[in-house]
Amino acid sequence: MLIGLFSLLACQLAGEVIAHALHLPIPGPVLGIVILFCGLALRHRLTGSDPTDARSAIGSTSDTLLRNLGLLFVPAGAGIIQSIGLVASNGIAIGVALAGSTLLTLIATVATFRLVRRLSGGDRA
Amino acid sequence: MNAVSTVPDEASIFALWVYLAQSPLLWLTITVGVFLIAQQLARLSGYRPIVNPVLISIVATASILALTHTDYRIYFAGAQFVHFLLGPATVALGVPLYRNRRLVISALLPIVTSLITGAVVAILSAVWLSTLLGAPHALTLALAPKSVTAGIAMGIAQQIGADPTLTAVFVISTGIFGAIIVTPLMNALGIKDFAARGFAAGLASHGIGTARAFQVDDVAGAFAGLAMALNGLATALLAPVVLRWFM
Fold first, then answer.
1. Which residues on A lie below 8 Å from B169 (Cβ)?
2. How far is the C-alpha of A21 from the C-alpha of A24, rounded, in Å?
3. For A32-63, b where at least 16 C-beta lie within 10 A, e where not — what string?
4. Does residue A94 sit in the same domain as residue A57?
5. Are A52 and A91 in a shared domain?
6. DSSP code at position B8
7. Looking at the complex, does the CB of residue A54 fall below 8 Å from at least one CB of chain B?
8. Residue A105 falls within a domain, yes or no?
9. Is residue A79 a part of any domain in this protein?
10. What are the per-10-residue average pLDDT scores of chain B (247 residues)?
């Protein structure tokens, strides 16, 4: 558990350090994913066993975090009480923009994904 | 506590409340407790999209704060320990990504093209609709990174001169709406490809959409996590460019 948590924190820290040091416009946690992925691939190559097995430290810690991902959004979401006035007085514009844009994004993404997959002939999966 | 053998009077209960309400412990416990109840409700409903645990938790928590006249900053002093885990949880997406690496590589072309399309549509349509409906400039700016996971979106907001806390609220509303709508929408469109469904869910509605995708299907979850990570990157790169060009 601790090793798993340490690995995640260390990857995030490394990501933040690299992003800031090199002035990259890439968010630290995103670089952290890349670093973790490379680390996992390297360990797999060296030890010959899958390091992301559900019983492994990193596997079980990540599974636990991702299974409860929703919880992590609650503190920021409760921040609505701070700006409820501004949001409510523009409720219709915000609501329509949010809902409309989310719908358009979902449709555009899934349509492109399916279209390109069919055209590129990768539809066996 | 054994010193108080008599029934505590109203004043001492109030004193206890004042003490607890200021401590991080109370609000941290409430945040986790409310979410556990919300998760139980979602399970009991058979994971119906509308019974979204994040939505229920936020409404319940915000109501408790409003009813007890608790300042959000005092609440956040406790809840920040949960909020902090957003970073490590984002990094943790590397694990399902690694497990599904062959699936991902086999769909590389659809992933890259739909990522760019989706990221641009997410930013442009939000800004365009909001401007069209006459929302103030500050709100429109804060809406631009709405499809990106909270930790990353708040950073983008700072970069483009928007209010990060406002962005966080829009991000979470977007996530909840996307998570509720994605299953009925994809069924209506007749999409049976769970990789495509998950990718769209994660791209449009980040971590909350990803949490929903994991409820439905493991492959959908992995692709949603991938889309969430990639869109964090794509929007961080694209939002300043698109906004300069559009506004």
1. 76-77, 79-80, 83, 87
2. 8
3. bbbbbbebbeebeeeeeeebbeeebbbbbbbb
4. no
5. no
6. P
7. no
8. yes
9. no
10. 59 81 89 96 91 93 94 92 91 89 90 97 96 92 94 85 90 94 96 96 95 90 91 89 81
Residue B161 CB partners (closer than 8 Å, separation 6+) = B141
Q: Could you report the predicted ipTM of this complex, rounded to two decimals?
A: 0.89
CB-nearest to A90 from B80, B125, B139 is B139
Inter-residue contact B174 to B118 (CB < 8 Å): no
Q: What is the DSSP string of B188-232?
A: HHT---HHHHHHHHHHHHHHHHHHHHHHH-HHHHHHHHHHHHHHH
Nearest to B139 among A27, A41, A94 (CB): A94
Which residues are within 8 A (CB) of B193 and not within 5 positions of it... i.e. 6 or more apart? Answer: A113, A114, A117
Boundaries of domain holding A108 = 87-125
Q: Is residue A82 part of a domain?
A: no
